[in-house]
């Protein structure tokens, strides 16, 4: 076995098939394919991190979460390459994209679901892909990464309201004063709750990087298509700006006001 065999390079290089003769379409394709590969690794790490937390293996989960934050950093730097594409260059091949859109990235949706940003309506977009729908539905049956962190709070003896511990898993998370109170106790005495303190900071770190990704995306989109509607059927920049308001781990942010 040689380098190309091991990495399956022949198969990999068969996957770049521009639909037009526009020079910049190869950049666009490779940018998205590399993003999807990094997302694949992020999912691999996030699934394992959640399993580790639920099994009480906290130190190994930190290692994986730190790696996910670095992956997001990688994805954030990659926008600089795509930003070299001007509106004139993108317009040359945009019609070739048809109805395809980042909105249909099922790995991206799985990351959102796994972290806790859950909206079952987003599954319907994949109605022509039963395998993808099943995969996303399965994810909605599991506790999110944040639910796993909250189960750590319960395990440490904090009294978490049943509205949170026994909530329906397949929808958005609602902030709860008992969770904020627990994080407040953790941040108030890090030495006593070091694992939880470190977990809180790892999650804030992750969300911080994720926010930068959303911001880079919307800025690049505005730079390239202005206020045009998206190929996925949304308002485009208006929709993506709205998504900037998403908060994944709400009490970890709100608690900072009272520390
Ligand atoms: C010139 C580059 C890009 C443009 C013009 C663009 C445009 C858009 C627009 C307008 C949307 C809203 C949905 C729609 O109506 O289509 C969207 C969503 C999305 N895009 Fe992009 N995008 C670009 C690059 C990328 C890249 C590099 C990625 C990386 C994978 C990406 C991933 C996504 C994802 C995951 C969504 C769904 C976001 C959500 O639902 O919160 N996009 N994009
Ligand atoms: N929604 C974009 C198209 C688009 O971005 C896209 C199309 C095909 C494959 C990936 C895409 N990227 C991210 O949304 C647009 O409206 O121009």
Automatic annotation (TrEMBL):
<dbReference type="GO" id="GO:0019441">
    <property type="term" value="P:L-tryptophan catabolic process to kynurenine"/>
</dbReference>
<dbReference type="InterPro" id="IPR004981">
    <property type="entry name" value="Trp_2_3_dOase"/>
</dbReference>
<keyword id="KW-0479">Metal-binding</keyword>
<comment type="similarity">
    <text>Belongs to the tryptophan 2,3-dioxygenase family.</text>
</comment>
<comment type="pathway">
    <text>Amino-acid degradation; L-tryptophan degradation via kynurenine pathway; L-kynurenine from L-tryptophan: step 1/2.</text>
</comment>
<feature type="binding site">
    <location>
        <position position="90"/>
    </location>
    <ligand>
        <name>substrate</name>
    </ligand>
</feature>
<keyword id="KW-0560">Oxidoreductase</keyword>
<dbReference type="Pfam" id="PF03301">
    <property type="entry name" value="Trp_dioxygenase"/>
</dbReference>
<feature type="binding site">
    <location>
        <position position="94"/>
    </location>
    <ligand>
        <name>substrate</name>
    </ligand>
</feature>
<dbReference type="InterPro" id="IPR037217">
    <property type="entry name" value="Trp/Indoleamine_2_3_dOase-like"/>
</dbReference>
<comment type="subunit">
    <text>Homotetramer.</text>
</comment>
<dbReference type="GO" id="GO:0004833">
    <property type="term" value="F:L-tryptophan 2,3-dioxygenase activity"/>
</dbReference>
<dbReference type="GO" id="GO:0019442">
    <property type="term" value="P:L-tryptophan catabolic process to acetyl-CoA"/>
</dbReference>
<dbReference type="GO" id="GO:0020037">
    <property type="term" value="F:heme binding"/>
</dbReference>
<feature type="binding site">
    <location>
        <position position="231"/>
    </location>
    <ligand>
        <name>substrate</name>
    </ligand>
</feature>
<keyword id="KW-0349">Heme</keyword>
<feature type="binding site">
    <location>
        <begin position="28"/>
        <end position="32"/>
    </location>
    <ligand>
        <name>substrate</name>
    </ligand>
</feature>
<feature type="binding site" description="axial binding residue">
    <location>
        <position position="217"/>
    </location>
    <ligand>
        <name>heme</name>
    </ligand>
</feature>
<keyword id="KW-0408">Iron</keyword>
<dbReference type="GO" id="GO:0046872">
    <property type="term" value="F:metal ion binding"/>
</dbReference>
<comment type="function">
    <text>Heme-dependent dioxygenase that catalyzes the oxidative cleavage of the L-tryptophan (L-Trp) pyrrole ring and converts L-tryptophan to N-formyl-L-kynurenine. Catalyzes the oxidative cleavage of the indole moiety.</text>
</comment>
<keyword id="KW-0223">Dioxygenase</keyword>
<keyword id="KW-0823">Tryptophan catabolism</keyword>
<protein>
    <recommendedName>
        <fullName>Tryptophan 2,3-dioxygenase</fullName>
        <ecNumber>1.13.11.11</ecNumber>
    </recommendedName>
</protein>
């Amino acid at each position: 076995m040689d380098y190309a065999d091991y990495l399956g390079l022949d198969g990999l290089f068969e996957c770049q098939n521009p639909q037009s003769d526009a020079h910049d379409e190869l950049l666009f394709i490779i940018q998205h394919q590399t993003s999807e590969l990094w997302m694949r690794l992020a999912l691999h790490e996030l699934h394992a991190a959640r399993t580790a937390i639920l099994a009480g293996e906290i130190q190994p989960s930190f290692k994986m979460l730190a790696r996910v934050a670095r992956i997001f950093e990688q994805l954030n730097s990659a926008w600089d390459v795509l930003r070299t594409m001007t509106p004139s260059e993108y317009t040359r091949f945009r019609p070739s994209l048809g109805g395809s859109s980042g909105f249909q990235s099922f790995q991206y949706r799985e990351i959102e679901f796994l972290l806790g940003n859950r909206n079952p309506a987003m599954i319907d977009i994949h109605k022509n892909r039963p395998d993808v729908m099943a995969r996303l539905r399965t994810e909605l049956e599991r506790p999110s990464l944040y639910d796993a962190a909250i189960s750590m709070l319960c395990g440490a003896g904090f009294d978490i309201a049943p509205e949170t511990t026994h909530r329906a898993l397949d929808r958005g998370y609602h902030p709860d004063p008992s969770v904020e109170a627990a994080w407040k106790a953790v941040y108030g005495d890090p030495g006593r709750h070091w694992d939880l303190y470190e977990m809180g900071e790892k999650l804030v770190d992750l969300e911080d990087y994720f926010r930068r990704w959303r911001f880079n995306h919307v800025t690049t989109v505005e730079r390239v298509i202005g206020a045009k509607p998206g190929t996925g059927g949304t308002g485009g920049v208006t929709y993506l700006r709205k998504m900037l308001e998403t908060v994944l781990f709400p009490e970890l942010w709100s608690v900072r006001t009272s520390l």
